[in-house]
Design goal:
InterPro entries: CHP03960_rSAM, Elp3/MiaA/NifB-like_rSAM, Radical_SAM_N2, rSAM, rSAM_horseshoe, rSAM_sf. This protein is α/β, with parallel strands linked by helices. It is built from 22 helices and 19 strands. The chain binds iron/sulfur cluster.
């Protein structure tokens, strides 16, 4: 069904271009010639979704198939949703403005726990029953992937199947299975049976969860022997061989990352103990610089973008960074294309590079020491010292930079008020470094922006057993820092601790949270990560109504033998390794990165990337 959006509606909402489509390089296909229609849904607004590389890659991979047409769908902003509901307009795709309920698949990418109510709201807006138990063969299959899919138990009531890990190959295997199933006349269940044994596919309906009297999990087990006991994530072994879009959509409107995004590698050699990405994406696999240069040229030609950014978890760990950057500058400088280098380590090479790359505008520099004291940085295995940071700041100030962002986390395991003091002291030392820089060298108008987020214990990290600080404690720490950081050059900002609390609940949640999510959605919760829409009181009402204590999930320290809702998911990194890392944290012992020494995390089973180089 094609949906008609009147000009009157478009004129009455903020940023109509979020809904019109037709951008440069978007894909159009003849509907008579495709047999699978896939609605790729990003549960946030257009500007955020379009900045996401994973969505761009999978859009391209699906549309490379002759038999499949993948279209994009974003969450309508609240003003548009209101108009849609008033005029009975269902959720629609950007390419053909078709109602998503007529598609074969609705696929969500789960980047952030706080988007879960948007997932439910989008299903509701599309006019299909949000609970999978109420959907029939007339309705599309609803699937999801992305980092939150590694513990997507809170969404188990709503999603038919999850894809774990990197999607490029597994999504094709699912589409192939669908082609066979579609003409067969078999039930929906039989399709799920067909894909349940594809590596990386998790069908939550095929697993039972039993609980102990104290609310912890007793067992998670497959309902039949034919389903895998452990669901193993997928990785792409050779990134040079896998398809990467050489034409990307160029939006008409400003988006968060409006530039070419060049993905250098996946995974991370470091093992910061709070960082989920550092474990779930292991092992590190790099693209060759030759391949990246080729891609950059093609993308620049097909988009006309004037900026390329290098994206990966810690860009400066790319082993051919110098070659790549020199090659890119040679090719791109004559075309006046800027290179943006986020999260680089500041040493003399990178400063030289940044000066060349940012001739016109010096953007702010970002450092993430994460903790205020060396002791706590050792606890979290953050391999930077105060000396590193201050040296980098000195080089940057001498190079004319004068805006610095410092990221810290509060509420980390073992944290004391001395560590919090350390945040203020380190920030002030950065100001001192600027003051010591000769006036003729440094830029004008120093601004040190200090921000703190609150520690959220995440699955598959060495801190998955830890308790989160209570909201009150987090607020006290923020208040304390606010007093300490008063000064002419320093600005302090912090994350909403109420949002961090809910994130902690959902991140380590189990299936019982499905009813809370549903109740919260019914109370109008959506866009929970957007401060202005976050309704904490409604969430608390939803927990009360369902008889569920959120503190059980956020603020409880787990014992090592507790069974987690994600224990049947296999990311390669073993629980044994994570336990060992947890213990080392308490002894303040650091673990070297993968290039220095392999510490046997378990990711070797994937037989790819850095693990093979070392063994
Ligand atoms: S197996 Fe070794 S090299 Fe591979 S990711 Fe784990 S620690 Fe790093």
């Amino acid at each position: 069904m094609k949906v008609k959006i009147s000009d009157k509606i478009l004129q009455s909402v903020e940023k109509p271009s979020r809904y019109t489509g037709n951008e440069w390089n978007s894909v159009y296909k003849d509907l008579d010639n495709v047999s699978i229609r896939f609605a790729f849904c990003f549960p946030d607004v257009y500007e955020i979704g379009m900045s996401h590389l994973g969505m761009r890659i999978l859009y391209h991979v699906l549309n490379e198939r002759k038999d499949t047409f993948c279209e994009r769908v974003f969450a309508p902003w609240v003003d548009m949703e209101q108009k849609m509901r008033e005029s009975n307009i269902p959720l629609f795709t950007l390419e053909t403005h078709s109602s998503v309920n007529s598609f074969d698949f609705i696929g969500f990418t789960l980047q952030y726990e706080m988007s879960y109510t948007n997932v439910i709201n989008m299903l509701d807006l599309s006019g299909i029953p949000v609970l999978k138990s109420e959907r029939t063969k007339e309705h599309p299959f609803v699937c999801a992937g992305g980092p939150c899919a590694y513990n997507a138990e809170p969404l188990a009531d709503f999603i038919d199947f999850f894809m774990l890990g990197e999607g490029e190959e597994v999504i094709n295997e699912v589409m192939d299975a669908y082609v066979n199933w579609k003409g067969s006349g078999e039930s929906k269940e039989s399709f799920l049976e067909m894909i349940a044994n594809i590596e990386g596919i998790y069908v939550p309906g095929f697993y039972n969860v039993e609980y102990n009297d104290d609310g912890t999990i007793r067992a998670i087990s497959p309902k039949a022997d034919r389903y895998p006991e452990k669901i193993k994530k997928r990785i792409i072994k050779d990134l040079d061989k896998v398809s990467f879009p050489d034409k990307i959509i160029v939006p008409f409107t400003d988006i968060v990352h409006d530039r070419i995004m060049l993905e250098l590698f996946r995974g991370c050699i470091r093992g910061c103990r709070f960082c989920q990405a550092g474990y779930i994406y292991r092992p590190v696999r790099e693209r060759t610089s030759g391949k990246l240069l080729e891609l950059a040229e093609k993308l620049q030609e097909s988009t006309g973008y004037e900026e390329i950014s290098l994206v990966s978890l810690s860009t400066s760990d790319y082993s051919h960074l110098r070659d790549l950057c020199t090659g890119l500058m040679d090719k791109m400088e004559p075309k006046k294309v800027n290179l943006s280098l986020p999260s680089l380590r500041v040493d003399s090479f990178s400063m030289e590079l940044m000066e060349k790359a940012q001739k016109v505008r010096k953007s702010g520099l970002t450092f993430a020491p994460e903790a205020g004291s060396q002791r706590l940085r050792d606890v979290i295995n953050k391999g930077v010292t105060e000396e590193d940071l201050l040296n980098s700041a000195a080089i940057a100030f001498a190079g004319g930079w004068s805006t610095v962002k410092l990221y810290f986390m509060i509420g980390l395991p073992t944290e004391t008020m001395e560590d919090i003091d350390g945040i203020a002291e380190l920030s002030k030392k950065v100001v001192d470094v600027y003051m010591k820089t000769p006036k003729d060298k440094r830029g004008k108008g120093l601004s040190v922006n200090v921000s703190t987020s609150s520690f959220v214990p995440k699955p598959f990290t060495p801190f998955q057993w830890e308790a989160q600080d209570s909201i009150e404690t987090l607020k006290e720490k923020q208040q304390y820092l606010m007093e300490k950081l008063k000064g002419k050059y320093i600005k302090y900002s912090w994350h909403d601790p109420y949002i961090s609390f809910l994130e902690a609940v959902l991140a380590r949640g189990d299936r019982r949270l499905g009813k809370v999510l549903y109740a919260a959605f019914k109370k109008g919760c959506k866009f929970d990560s957007w401060g202005e829409h976050f309704k904490f009181d409604s969430w608390i009402e939803a927990f009360d109504q369902c008889g569920i204590d959120p503190h059980f999930y956020a603020n409880r320290k787990r014992t090592f033998d507790e069974i987690f809702p994600w224990d049947h998911i296999d990311v390669g990194v073993t629980k044994k390794f994570l336990k060992r890392e947890n213990e080392k944290a308490y002894f303040e012992v650091i673990t070297p990165n993968c290039r220095v020494k392999c510490t046997g995390c378990g990711a070797l089973v994937f037989d790819g990337g850095i693990c093979n180089e070392l063994h």
